[in-house]
């Protein structure tokens, strides 16, 4: 596949992943009301582990090496443990639109860790575009009156930081063992540790949760926790970690759109204006040149 076509396809897969991720906070907001933080935050991984175990067994995938296992731990800490648990806790008290604004800082976190872990070096144009996008969402947050931070805000910011590391590490590792294999092994490695805490938090009342809550939980387990990562890591492997991460600027506004559809949250004209600015920064940033320094292992 030609490089240009490969990069475009990578951006398309990244967009698909972002659309799937954009439903995560709305689904979490619905599910956590009936199942609680632990079941939603960790239980989704237990369910996803059953799916990935079957896939890994059928395909007879090779076990990761010790070095790859260490990288998978970093992926698991962010994508499988930290982000689901912290966002589940935060969504108990924050509206989706609030969380969406703070999650908008994820591309900068991802690009920053990409420089460290994958040796990608974005150009000045890339960083200017990133700053413009970040400033846009900060202005949006101030306009909505999110000036005072709560503990839930700090939880979301911490989730963004550790997920940025997870994204960067997963994108780098996907070039070695495959995109879906990264999140699959990460899920399978940590899921056994989640069984006991999830089991202790299960109650009989959960069986009477409405269909909307069950659909949301299943979506979180199957799509948000696994299938969306397959598309996302594939996109980063093909299009470049820092460049594809720019698409994440669309995520908060897609979240707000889905929140309006499923949770009856309103969309203002100001939101649309900010969305246009952010989209412009994405278009500009994805076309910015990005250099990559090969590691010694890659050269050999």
Automatic annotation (TrEMBL):
It is a multi-pass membrane protein. The chain crosses the membrane at residues 41-59, 71-90, 96-114, 126-145, 151-168, 180-200, 212-232, 253-283. One of its GO terms (cellular component) is membrane. Its main location: membrane. It is found in: Endomembrane system. Keywords: Membrane, Transmembrane, Transmembrane helix. Residues 9-140, 151-283 form the EamA domain. PANTHER family: EAMA DOMAIN-CONTAINING PROTEIN (PTHR32322:SF2), INNER MEMBRANE TRANSPORTER (PTHR32322). Belongs to the EamA transporter family. This is Permease of the drug/metabolite transporter (DMT) superfamily. It comes from Seinonella peptonophila.
């Amino acid at each position: 596949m030609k490089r240009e076509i490969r990069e475009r396809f990578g951006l398309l897969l990244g967009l698909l992943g972002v659309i799937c991720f954009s439903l995560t906070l709305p689904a979490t907001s619905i599910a956590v009301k009936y199942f609680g933080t632990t079941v939603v935050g960790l239980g989704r991984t237990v369910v996803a582990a059953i799916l990935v175990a079957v896939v890994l067994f059928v395909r007879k995938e090779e076990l990761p090496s010790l070095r790859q296992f260490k990288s998978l731990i970093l992926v698991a800490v962010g994508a499988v443990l930290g982000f689901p648990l912290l966002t589940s806790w935060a969504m108990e008290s924050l509206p989706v639109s609030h969380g969406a604004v703070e999650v908008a800082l994820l591309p900068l976190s991802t690009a920053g860790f990409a420089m460290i872990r994958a040796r990608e070096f974005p150009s000045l144009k890339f960083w200017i575009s990133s700053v413009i996008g970040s400033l846009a969402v900060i202005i949006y947050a101030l306009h909505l009156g999110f000036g005072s931070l709560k503990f839930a805000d700090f939880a979301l910011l911490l989730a963004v930081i550790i997920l940025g590391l997870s994204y960067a590490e997963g994108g780098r590792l996907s070039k070695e063992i495959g995109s879906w294999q990264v999140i699959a092994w990460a899920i399978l490695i940590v899921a056994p540790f989640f069984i006991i805490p999830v089991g202790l938090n299960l109650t009989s009342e959960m069986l009477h949760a409405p269909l909307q809550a069950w659909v949301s939980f299943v979506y979180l387990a199957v799509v948000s926790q696994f299938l969306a990562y397959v598309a996302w890591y594939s996109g980063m492997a093909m299009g470049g970690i820092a460049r594809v991460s720019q698409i994440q600027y669309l995520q908060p506004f897609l979240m707000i759109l889905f929140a309006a559809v499923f949770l009856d949250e309103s969309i203002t004209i100001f939101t649309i204006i900010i969305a246009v600015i952010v989209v412009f920064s994405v278009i500009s940033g994805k076309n910015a040149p990005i250099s990559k320094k090969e590691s010694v292992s890659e050269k050999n």
